[in-house]
Amino acid sequence: KDYLNEKKASFFFKPPKYDTNWFDAITQTGKITNHNLSLTGGSEKIQSFFSVGLNTEEGILKDNNFDRLTVRSNIDYKISENLNFSNNVSVQIAKLDAKSYGAFTTAYKQAPIVAIKDENGNFGSSSAFNNVGNPVADLFYQDESQKYLKTQATFKIEYDIIENLKLTSRFSIESENQEFITFNDHIGRHFARNPKTAFTEKVENELKVKMLNKHRWY
């Protein structure tokens, strides 16, 4: 009797093999960095301004990053006593690497006794006792990239006809280009959640091929 009780106690109170902190596994310390450089100069006939700004953001969700480069150029040029020319040009280039925030929900639901990866390097699965996915695997098998290019430019010519009478002509242009790329590896995610199922399907398919070859008539 004591022997059986000891066996039961050792079974129920056996410490888990893994103690995974899922939020630590999918998050990082967010960081925002800004770098700016500006130059100004000129003479009696020309005044110029040039600036470059770089903004980088690392989100709290791993591999969720944003980068933006902004370039500006302003020039005022006095062509003659009565004629002036100026232009303002701005270019923005941005890139966003996004991950699904659904990983937070999965991390909240998943049990800590599930491994991020097992001894063979495969993503840990909880298919034996729940249907919650592996949030680290979800981030790995999902990629989203957005690229953005925006250009704005304004050109202006002013001509003093007579005192208190001025002719002004403006020309503006604005263009935007965006590219969205999304990839979800549903097959990889399915096999990561159900490694036994994946192995079983592979074996069954191999057996079917062998049986078809064995009973094929030529």
Summarize this entry quickly.
The protein is α+β, with helices and mostly antiparallel strands and 218 residues long. 27% of the residues lie in helices and 44% in strands.
Explain what you see.
This protein is of the alpha+beta class and 218 residues long. The chain has six helices and six strands; from the N terminus they run H-H-E-E-E-E-H-H-E-E-H-H. The chain has a six-stranded antiparallel β-sheet with strand order 1-2-3-4-5-6. A hairpin with a 2-residue loop joins strand 5 and strand 6. Helix 5 crosses helix 6. The longest helix is centred in the C-terminal third of the chain and has 20 residues. The C terminus is likely disordered.
Q: What portion of the residues fall into strands of 2 or more residues?
A: 35-45%
The number of helical segments is: 6
Counting DSSP E segments of at least 2 residues, the number of strands comes to 6
Using only CA atoms, what is the Rg? 32 Å
Q: Termini distance?
A: 67 Å
What is the typical, i.e. mean, pLDDT? 83
Shape: rod-shaped
User: Helical amount among residues, as a percent range?
Assistant: 25-40%
Helix-strand pattern? HHEEEEHHEEHH
Describe the strand arrangement of the main beta sheet, using strand numbers: 1-2-3-4-5-6
Task: Give short descriptive properties of this protein.
218 residues; alpha+beta; 6 helices; rod-shaped
